[in-house]
Amino acid sequence: MKRGGRQLRPRGSRPPLTAPAGLTAERFDLGGEAYLILEWLAERRRPDLSLGPAEREVLELLLAGLSNSDIAARRRRSARTVAHQVERIYHRLGVGSRLELFALLARAAGSAGRSPR
């Protein structure tokens, strides 16, 4: 049924869960609720792994669990400078957050430890 140009769904029904463009999705149900696990498609751009010395130092401190302000204090730089360096690291590695950064590096470490078949 349509009203005012909009498609109406029966009361209590939910729209189907689909993945946004550029992502794959795996659906699972938990406690009567439907969830999607989203993952970037493999064909996204290859990361630029050429980090400068300052970015490598910031990356090491990120991996040690330090916040931007802690990194700034340790490196005697402004928090804004560190935030820019973190953003450049994210851009070069093709990630958007610390969580994605850790996942990328964990996958890289896992694949580096595997022997070729």
Question: Structural class given helices, strands, pairing?
Answer: alpha+beta
Beta-strand residue fraction: 15-25%
Task: State the CATH architecture of the domain at 53-112.
Answer: Orthogonal Bundle
- In CATH, what is the class of the domain at 53-112? Mainly Alpha
What kind of assembly state do the chains in view correspond to?
A: single chain
Number of strands: 4
CATH T-level fold name of the domain at 53-112: Arc Repressor Mutant, subunit A
> What is the count of DSSP helices, taking H or I runs of 4+ residues?
4
Query: What are the secondary-structure elements, in order, as H or E?
Result: EEEEHHHH
Average of the residue pLDDT scores:
75
Rg for CA atoms: 21 Å
Our measurement of the CA-to-CA distance between the termini, rounded to an integer number of angstroms, reads: 57 Å
Specify the helix fraction band: 40-55%
Strand order of the largest sheet: 1-2
State the CATH superfamily name of the domain at 53-112.
Winged helix-like DNA-binding domain superfamily/Winged helix DNA-binding domain
Provide keyphrases for this structure:
single chain, 117 residues, alpha+beta, Arc Repressor Mutant, subunit A, two-stranded antiparallel sheet, 4 helices, 4 strands
Description:
The chain has 117 residues and is α+β, with helices and mostly antiparallel strands. It contains four helices and four strands; from the N terminus they run E-E-E-E-H-H-H-H. It has a two-stranded antiparallel sheet. Strands 3-4 form a two-stranded antiparallel sheet. Helix 1 packs across helix 3 and helix 2 (68-75) packs across helix 3. The model has no long low-confidence stretch (mean pLDDT 75).
